[in-house]
Amino acid sequence: GAVVSQHPSRVICKSGTSVKIECRSLDFQATTMFWYRQFPKKSLMLMATSNEGSKATYEQGVEKDKFLINHASLTLSTLTVTSAHPEDSSFYICSARTGTSLGTQYFGPGTRLLVL
Amino acid sequence: EDQVTQSPEALRLQEGESSSLNCSYTVSGLRGLFWYRQDPGKGPEFLFTLYSAGEEKEKERLKATLTKKESFLHITAPKPEDSATYLCAVTNFGNEKLTFGTGTRLTIIP
Predict the structure, then answer these.
(1) Tens digits of per-residue pLDDT, B84-102?
(2) What is the mean pLDDT of residues A50-79?
(3) Which of the listed residues A5, A24, B91, B109 has the most CB atoms within 10 Å of its CB?
(4) In degrees, to the nearest 5, what angle opens at C-alpha B87 toward C-alphas B81 and B92?
(5) Nearest CA in chain B to A101
């Protein structure tokens, strides 16, 4: 149980274009989803927290107009990287948390983004 | 501010050689301590959640323990497939965010 999927697993795009990444909880309802970014050989950096039906809460230093997050249902959150630039190239990982306040976060497999 | 320190940074073991990974934490009111395993190019895989000092949990060759200042992940008779980066993280009662350590990169040599 507690499976989280992400799509696509990897994407290559041209500079200036936008890319959407989907995160789905497959077998549970996720009231809260999180988006992380991970640089090579580094730990996960939280970008934003999203609650179903509410605006996302972004961490300090993360541009909310560049990284658009939508959490339209209890099983789906999307991250859109707008006007992507090479410095946005990274490994993006989502996680979903079950409904209880002590709920564990279950992570998706990640999306590798390369901006040319 | 919550802090998590993991040691060692990297560990190489022979197959069958048992050892422990350390996670020291400073948190204002521990809600939970989490252990994850991450393979290269993959998202973290959940292993254990510990909530209070003295708690222990086991899964196959792994056993996690918790004190008021640190957690240990004991690995008994490891196999090459146990090679991965092991991440420790905490949450506090003030918020729901995970604060991660930098991980221990474990390599098991056949």
Answers:
(1) 999 999 998 877 789 999 9
(2) 92
(3) B91
(4) 150
(5) B96
